[in-house]
Amino acid sequence: MGSMFRSEEVALVQLFLPTAAAYTCVSRLGELGLVEFRDLNASVSAFQRRFVVDVRRCEELEKTFTFLQEEVRRAGLVLPPPEGRLPAPPPRDLLRIQEETERLAQELRDVRGNQQALRAQLHQLQLHAAVLRQGHEPQLAAAHTDGASERTPLLQAPGGPHQDLRVKASQPRG
What we know:
Distance between the termini: 112 Å
Shape: elongated
Order of helices and strands: HHH
Oligomer: single chain
Number of helices: 3
């Protein structure tokens, strides 16, 4: 046991694992939380490594889970913390988990897009309703003040409604 000013004793070990057992062993060691990994292949580029596809899959899953967690928080819900440590899923379940979370995330994106479209439509409809209300208010006010009706023509001939109006046609300039 280390003191207050010193770290605990550690041991440097090197493990050689068969490929078939590597995932299970590494996930169990990771669940313990007592292991630090060193990269013994630092000279190999990231694209030439054996497990690049798996690491990218995990990064995509992390992004998806972060998005889902943010949406849950935005909805005002609180996720209870998991009880104890969660075991790493077996590789055969990892693909199913990835597909399911991506499906849920896409559904949430669609719902959010629909919600935004509906809010925009509601806003437009409220604007149209306000314009219609304002358009009818002056006519109602005029009907109450001077007794004019909606059927009264806006333009009447000076001599009355039955007077003939004559229009003088002008000659085209040529």
